[in-house]
Specification:
There is one protein chain. The protein is α/β, with parallel strands linked by helices. It has 9 helices and 6 strands. It is about 45% helix and about 20% strand. Strand 4 (about 90) and strand 5 (about 95-105) form a beta hairpin. The longest helix is centred in the N-terminal third of the chain and has 13 residues, at about 45-55. The protein starts with a strand and ends with a helix.
Length: about 200
Amino acid sequence: MGKLRNRAIIIGEGVTEFYYFQSLRDVYKQVAFKPDYPKHTSIEELETKIREAAEKGYTHIFCVIDMDNKDEGPERTQYNKLKAKFAKPINKPKKGISCKVEFFETHLCTELFFRYYFGYTSCPYENQKSLIKDLNIKVKYEKTIKFFRKNNGLHSYFESEGGSLEKAIANAETSMKEKDDRDYTYSELGRLMKALENLQK
């Protein structure tokens, strides 16, 4: 039986999100949240993680989604079906389960939000590699576990190099305001940060 806790879990699609959100636990100290990710990147695995989190009694399930592999084709269809499944909160009173599932998308990927720590861009990146190359103009970054561990917290690392979470949130919000005019280079992670802030109140 699930035990209702006023806690959040952040489910990313890989280790990048895991290490990044782990580094934010010192920022949102009043929020009990846990980063997690599927062992195998697929829509089915993501759904399994969501259902496991609900069974464990989390009240807020935040899913961090990279859109670079969901632009079209079967992945897009499967992803839309997943969002539809969890459009309404999960309520199972007899099991003590009540939670809301929310999806926060970034195109191309989470590294765009890292780029927003250092300034705004609406550049139509060709792929993840070109985005990371642009990020490296602003700050040294490698998409490897070794790099994530060596820098002892991505958030504090970005800020020590002149970046700012507040700036990233503002830039992400700007990207969403412009999303009506384009369907690329945007991030909803600023909204996720605000959701975490609201849980502190």
